[in-house]
Amino acid sequence: MAAPQSKSVERERQALNGWLALSLVVLWFVAAVALFISTAEAAANGTLSDGAIALRMISAFLMVGLGIFSCFGFFTLEPNEARVLILFGAYKGTARNSGFHWANPLYARNRGVVPGTVPVPKKVKIGPLSMSDGTMTQPKSKTKLSLRVHNFNSETLKVNDKRGNPVEIAAVVVWRVEDTAQAVFDVEDYESYVQVQSEAAIRSIASVYAYDHGEEHEVTLRGGGDDVAHAMKKELEVRLAKAGVVVEEARLTHLAYAPEIAPAMLRRQQAEAVIAAREKIVLGAVSMVEMALHELARKDVVKLDEERKAAMVSNLLVVLCGTEEASPVINTGTLYA
Questions:
Q1: CA-based nearest residue to 70, from 13, 31, 36
Q2: Is residue 10 a part of any domain in this protein?
Q3: What percent of the chain has pLDDT over 90?
Q4: Higher pLDDT residue, 31 or 109?
Q5: Does residue 81 lie in a domain region?
Q6: Comparing C-alpha atoms, which of 208, 286, 289, 196 is closest to residue 240?
Q7: Burial state string for 321-336 with b = 16 or more CB within 10 A and e = fewer than 16
Q8: Does residue 331 lie in a domain region?
Q9: 101 bridge partner residues
Q10: H-state helical runs in the chain
């Protein structure tokens, strides 16, 4: 059984102030030039032997070469930016302070080329980032990382909800890198990792909740916005912790039934709306009829037997519950004719 992968831990390291290092490099170049000039004057005056002159000239050239090599150690960091310091494959720390800095020029500036699995389109010519098996290689990843807040807008995914209904869903994930060591060393490509794991979390959350019309007090995708967002954030935090990524917010941006069932679900929603409206209309009509009979009896306007009351109730319900305007028939004769 393979041993579990050890978790990388970030170590913050202070880089040398760039302006101080630049002053030292300039003084180094001045000393090299002074050595070269003094050696040339000594050679002209004949005060030094040929061996001493050659040794001093070699030293001057070496000083110039070392000064040029030291210039490759300068780098800048903007606010919310960090650089991972890697020396011959060994992690030496992370520089986080913004400004002008100097570090060992031997620290790697790239993390190497990572083979990918993206097929090469036919219209794309085979280039230096292509492999013989028809896959593309990702460009070299720099050791400088952005610690700013990122937005990831997922594509519209088709998944099945808790009841098995196919729905289309999409979300936005707000994230940032917190542990640079984990982001660089524990996953192959942390940006791709965030994308893949976010889509997997969205699919997982969609299968836990029903689209709508859940059981009593049940959270649904359409009605439980805050609860669903909280659950999605928790799911993403667990998945992205391996990459040293912190999730600031996760929220649905698109939610709809899949096209193949959308018409049927629309008819169902319309039917439910009609039933709910009819229910309110009937309740209102019954209360109005009851109020009319009560007022007629209280004011002694007319005395009706049970049969006439039933006819009046029937007529009033037809008028109040009908979908079209009723056309009353006026009785000009006696009430009991």
A1: 31
A2: no
A3: 32
A4: 31
A5: yes
A6: 196
A7: eeeeeeeeeeeeeeee
A8: no
A9: 17, 75
A10: 18-45, 50-70, 180-181, 190-208, 225-240, 262-298, 306-321
Phi, psi (deg, nearest 5) at residue 118: -85, 120
Q: Which amino acid, one-letter code, is at 279?
A: E
Looking at this protein, which amino acid is placed at residue 257? Y
Token pair in block for residue 170: 């999409």
For residue 7, the 8-state DSSP code is P
Find out whether 85 and 107 touch, Cβ atoms under 8 Å: yes
What average pLDDT does range 173-182 have in this prediction?
A: 92
Closest to 59 measured CA to CA, from 89, 86, 33: 33
Percent of the chain residues past pLDDT 70, beyond the cut: 74
How crowded is residue 46: how many other Cβ atoms within 10 Å of its Cβ?
8
- What is the SS3 assignment for 89? coil
Q: Are 204 and 250 in contact (CB under 8 A)?
A: no
Q: Has residue 120 been placed in a domain?
A: yes
More reliable by pLDDT, 302 or 284: 284
Helix, coil or strand: residue 239: helix
Q: pTM (2 decimals)?
A: 0.67
Among candidates 94, 189, 190, which has minimal Cα distance to 138? 189
User: How crowded is residue 42: how many other Cβ atoms within 10 Å of its Cβ?
Assistant: 15
pLDDT in tens, 197-235: 999 999 998 888 888 765 666 788 777 778 888 999 999
Domain that holds residue 21: 16-102
Residues 191 and 124 in one domain: no
**Which residue do the tokens 């193949």 mark?**
260
- Burial-class residue 184 by CB neighbours within 10 Å (0-12, 13-18, 19+): buried
Kindly report, residue by residue over 293-317, the tens digit of the pLDDT: 777 777 776 676 677 777 777 767 6
